Amino acid sequence: PDVLVPRKEEFYLVKWKGLSYLHASWERPDDLRAVDPSAAQKLKKWQAAEAQRQGAGTWKRLAHKFEAMEEEDAPDEYFDPEYVEVARLVACDRDRVAHADLVYRELR
């Protein structure tokens, strides 16, 4: 009988340009290529820079280490938690805030 072996997939933690760290998400390389045709080149560039920074193959060794971890053992934070805290409010559109509050109340 054929035994199905789960296929390992690569995921990248993406901090999207123009969005805060609250919107960072785990994405597959194929999904990134579908959104941005230049993603393949960006991934190669990142892998080369990472290999140079940490020594060849280090990021792959770390990836295998994370794969071996149980889900509850995985790190909770991949970047500084202060990145998602509001440091200051620069501007506020009171009409938009009132509208958002109204929509929220209607949804409850």
Task: Give the rounded overall mean pLDDT.
Answer: 76
| Beta content | 5-15%
- The neighbouring-strand order within the major sheet is 1-2
Number of strands: 2
- The helix content, as a percent range, equals 40-55%
Q: Report the end-to-end length measured between terminal Cα atoms.
A: 53 Å
Q: SSE string, helix = H, strand = E?
A: EEHHHH
Q: Which quaternary structure do these chains form?
A: single chain
Q: What is the number of helical segments per DSSP (H or I, 4+ residues)?
A: 4
Largest sheet: 2 strands, antiparallel
In terms of structural class, how would the helical and strand content be classed? mainly alpha
> How many separate domains?
1
Unreliable sequence segments: none
The whole-angstrom Rg is: 20 Å
Overall geometry: elongated
Protein name: Chromo domain-containing protein
Organism: Heterosigma akashiwo (Chromophytic alga)
Pfam families: Chromo
Domain Chromo: 1-55
Observed structural traits:
two-stranded antiparallel sheet, Chromo-like_dom_sf, 4 helices, mainly alpha, 6% strand, Chromo_domain, Chromo/chromo_shadow_dom, 108 residues, Chromo domain-containing protein
